[in-house]
């Protein structure tokens, strides 16, 4: 097998493509022949040593993937060789093979395309957990999605529309705004030329959005929160902008509003049965044609540095895929 190795978590520039022995699965594990993996922003932070989770060195980066089970370890009953699966494992995906805990894998029906599956779990699970579980989104409410052209943002647009919400997308360029409208947003705010608060007021008046989906952080968070509706909910999903905002808490008081943390990974660990039920619901929504990952660009697995460069350029709309030679 071959894999990308991070020897020191010092950045993309130290990653090495190496040949290794094919691993054997331990108890509770399966070996997956990886078809494709996708990039998520935490993948970049992990190889830079900046993420909250720091794996032991050296490690194979890459959290999200799809593929085919080759062999199963002791105690695995629900998966067999040949099963098509998708998984989110934290590390190990930027390789040709990986041994993964069977509990982290989602069995896929034959109709589920493996390219789509590699870009599916993280963004849709995060957004579904945020909007429906933590945010308690109701049909007819207005949702503001920040960073709307990215992976989780594009998933949030589709899931909010599937739940019957009105969706306002905020993105950083005219091209990204067009992509947001193409996948279902009712309105798009171009942050390169439009003021967020003023444009929200034009679109929905003084009431503001009922739910704010915020994977961005930075200065945008406070501007959005100042526009929130009475009893609105602001979902803290991440900090892609790089800066963790410090919001004046008096704004919560004045608006009767809530700041709500969203950590899908921890939810999946602590509440595995609810997470599994949610994943099956998402699979059904995809097979029904109501949600589908937006694929920005496909690279070969050996082209990981170029894929990371694409991500760092902040030009990505949707998800970047890495494909192994099949």
Automatic annotation (TrEMBL):
InterPro entries with a match to the protein in the record: ADH-like_C (IPR013149), ADH-like_N (IPR013154), ER (IPR020843), GroES-like_sf (IPR011032), NAD(P)-bd_dom_sf (IPR036291), Quin_OxRdtase/zeta-crystal_CS (IPR002364), Zn-ADH-like_protein (IPR051397)
Listed Pfam families: ADH_N, ADH_zinc_N
Keyword Lipid metabolism annotated: no
Source taxon at top rank: Bacteria
Domain Enoyl reductase (ER), first and last residues per copy: 11-322
Keywords, in A-Z order: Oxidoreductase
Gene Ontology terms, MF aspect: oxidoreductase activity
EC number: 1.-.-.-
Name of this chain's protein: NADPH:quinone oxidoreductase family protein
The organism of origin for this protein: Roseateles flavus
């Amino acid at each position: 097998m071959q894999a990308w190795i991070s020897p020191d978590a010092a950045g993309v520039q130290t990653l090495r493509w190496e040949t290794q022995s094919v691993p054997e699965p331990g108890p509770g594990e399966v070996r997956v022949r990886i078809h494709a993996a996708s990039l998520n922003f935490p993948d970049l932070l992990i190889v830079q040593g900046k993420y909250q989770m720091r794996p032991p060195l050296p490690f194979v980066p890459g959290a999200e993937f799809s593929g085919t089970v080759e062999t199963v370890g002791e105690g695995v009953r629900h998966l067999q060789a040949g099963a098509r699966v998708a998984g989110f494992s934290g590390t190990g995906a930027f390789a040709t093979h990986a041994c993964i805990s069977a509990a982290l894998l989602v069995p896929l029906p034959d109709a589920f395309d493996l390219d789509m599956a590699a870009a599916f779990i993280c963004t849709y699970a995060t957004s579904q957990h945020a909007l429906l579980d933590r945010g308690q989104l109701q049909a007819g409410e207005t949702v503001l999605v920040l960073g709307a052209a990215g992976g989780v943002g594009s998933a949030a647009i589709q899931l909010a529309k599937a739940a019957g919400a009105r969706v306002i997308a905020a993105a950083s360029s005219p091209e990204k705004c067009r992509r947001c409208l193409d996948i279902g947003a009712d309105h798009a705010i171009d942050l390169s030329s439009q003021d967020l608060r003023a444009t929200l007021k034009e679109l929905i008046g003084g009431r503001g959005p009922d739910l704010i989906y915020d994977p961005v952080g930075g200065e945008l968070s406070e501007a959005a929160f100042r526009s929130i509706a009475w009893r609105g909910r602001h979902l803290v999903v991440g900090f892609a902008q790089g800066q963790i905002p410090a919001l004046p808490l008096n704004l919560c008081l004045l608006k009767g509003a809530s700041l709500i943390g969203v950590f899908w990974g921890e939810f999946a660990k602590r509440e595995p049965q609810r997470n599994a039920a949610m994943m099956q619901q998402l699979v059904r929504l995809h097979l029904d044609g109501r949600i589908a990952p937006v694929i920005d660009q496909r690279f070969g697995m050996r082209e990981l540095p170029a894929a990371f460069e694409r991500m760092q350029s902040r030009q990505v709309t949707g998800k970047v895929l890495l494909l192994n030679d099949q």
